User: Which sequence fits this backbone?
């Protein structure tokens, strides 16, 4: 890893921001809202803005889906100062695993998702916390590369208190709230927690704007940043678009894909709808993304999640 820029030590330096979607499926309204808010934040600050395609899941992330993600964001009117693809950064991720292994922080784990469900320890992110079944195991004699199982991080005991610019409480005892996270999957794929921390550090990201669904992961990211000796960016977590059942609007939950939205909306019309959903407009009047920059400020952005219904012809915001 290259050295990370310490945001707190250089207040006058140009901010470095990123939007990091996963091209594991088509972009949808939730993806586009997250991209719009990250873009407006960076452009209103005059910051450097990078698009990072987090294609760490080789089974679901394909070049075709990555190309479609780029196309969807460009269609909405979003542009970038640089772009990176996570799967091309394997050497940096492996170097981080080397450092963590040398510090005695990695161990192999044979537990399955079924095992976690049986343990029935609720996690802060809505999943199941790892109970520590394999925590006492050591890496193979030849090192982590010889492991044929997932690799987990030994989290320290104690409380971590990251700061969120919007006032969201990110304080957590990550070992109790989430359990030791997987950093490298059984199939060799680098897991999200490690990749995002390494990439943010190497790309000298000073500011992270992302959805509130990722807030429970922040304490783990801070632990990893400290273990790897890199700086912690400033965080802001924003509202989500939800299905009527209460789940986050997501590819796996049948969210309407961008291509279907494009058949019903011009880009300015969908941008206006997203701006209304975020509280930046009182009505979904058509607007270009670029025209929202001058008036953008986080106090204007809604803090409550919004429930969305797709009628087959249009997106509707469901009143709380």
Assistant:
């Amino acid at each position: 890893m290259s050295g990370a820029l310490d945001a707190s030590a250089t207040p006058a330096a140009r901010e470095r921001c990123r939007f990091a979607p996963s091209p594991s499926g088509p972009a949808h309204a939730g993806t586009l809202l997250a991209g719009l808010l990250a873009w407006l934040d960076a452009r209103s600050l005059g910051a450097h803005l990078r698009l990072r395609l987090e294609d760490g899941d080789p089974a679901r992330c394909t070049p075709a889906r990555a190309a479609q993600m780029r196309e969807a964001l460009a269609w909405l009117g979003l542009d970038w100062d640089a772009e990176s693809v996570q799967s091309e950064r394997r050497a940096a991720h492996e170097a981080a695993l080397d450092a963590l292994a040398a510090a005695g922080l990695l161990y192999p784990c044979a537990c399955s998702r079924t095992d976690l469900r049986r343990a029935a320890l609720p996690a802060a992110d809505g999943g199941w916390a790892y109970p520590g079944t394999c925590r006492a195991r050591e890496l193979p004699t030849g090192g982590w590369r010889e492991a044929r199982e997932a690799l987990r991080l030994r989290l320290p005991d104690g409380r971590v208190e990251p700061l969120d610019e919007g006032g969201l409480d990110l304080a957590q005892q990550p070992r109790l709230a989430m359990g030791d996270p997987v950093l490298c999957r059984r199939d060799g794929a680098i897991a999200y927690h490690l990749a995002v921390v390494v990439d943010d550090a190497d790309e000298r990201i000073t500011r992270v704007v992302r959805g509130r669904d990722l807030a429970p992961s922040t304490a783990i990211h801070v632990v990893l940043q400290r273990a790897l000796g890199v700086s912690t960016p400033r965080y802001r977590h924003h509202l989500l678009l939800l299905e009527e059942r209460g789940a986050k609007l997501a590819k796996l939950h049948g969210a309407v894909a961008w291509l279907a939205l494009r058949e019903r909306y011009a880009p300015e019309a969908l941008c206006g709808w997203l701006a209304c959903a975020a509280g930046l407009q009182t009505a979904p009047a058509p607007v270009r993304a670029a025209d929202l920059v001058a008036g953008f400020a986080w106090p204007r952005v809604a803090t409550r999640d919004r429930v969305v219904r797709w009628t087959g012809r249009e997106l509707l915001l469901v009143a709380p």
Q: What stands out?
A: Residues 2-12 have pLDDT under 50 and may be disordered.
